[in-house]
Amino acid sequence: MSDTSSAVQDYYPEDVAHCFGCGRLNEDGHQLKTVWEGDETVSRFRPAPHHTAIPGYVYGGLIASLLDCHGTGAAAAATLRREGREIGEGEAPRFVTASLQVDFLKPTPLGPELVVRGRVLEINDRKVVLEESLSAEGVVTARGRVVAVRMPEQMIPSK
Amino acid sequence: MSDTSSAVQDYYPEDVAHCFGCGRLNEDGHQLKTVWEGDETVSRFRPAPHHTAIPGYVYGGLIASLLDCHGTGAAAAATLRREGREIGEGEAPRFVTASLQVDFLKPTPLGPELVVRGRVLEINDRKVVLEESLSAEGVVTARGRVVAVRMPEQMIPSK
Fold this sequence. Notes:
Two copies of one chain form a homodimer. By secondary structure, the first copy, chain A, is an alpha+beta fold.
């Protein structure tokens, strides 16, 4: 079962919670949320009508963006769990993407809610590697692989 | 030299010109344009202030989107050139992305115009493989690789 009250993005430090894809403080953005469902991380997102590729289908850039931001969120959630913490027990660590691979398996219909699921392949103090799927109405339409790394200290905005 | 009057996206058939990333008929979208500069394809885009990742930097989903849409545009331009046609000589063929790889080399500053450049690695009747770079103020901050394939006939919306 999904508990959307414990999305990892809700616990990013305030000064790094403005990402267009997943920052809760970006009013113009997607505000993607990532939660645990068992051993999988899950994000759900309903595209807007203008997120079109060919009419009727979701444009690839949105799919890449969802896989990217789900990846950094999942990396944060997995790091908390590795430390014995649940989401919400203190601030969540902030990751950035080092590399993103997206395989578009078939056209993604525009309309239904999209579901991104992630699994950790590899995790250490500095880096998390995840595999992901994106599905619409139960059909997987894209797969992704993300290498997420801890946000470099010099990226943190001065307060 | 860049000739922005001959962007390949301006010659997509009307019924497939609505992509959020690069469709000239999507009023809410990025309307990315791709032109030839010698043997390279080039797209230029200035992000909006809300396209932020960590404050001060461009969010990765936009970078992925620019590399994706530049890739399909470049594939169309390269296919025209392979057929002995310049951009604007008839309708441009429409490609979709089969796979996208993005390596984020360093943070991309938010503010300056971003420049995407592409080179064809492989081209045949059905498929174009490209390598791409994305730079800000002359510094390459991301690299991409796109496999673009001709749009399947069944994706074309019925008129």
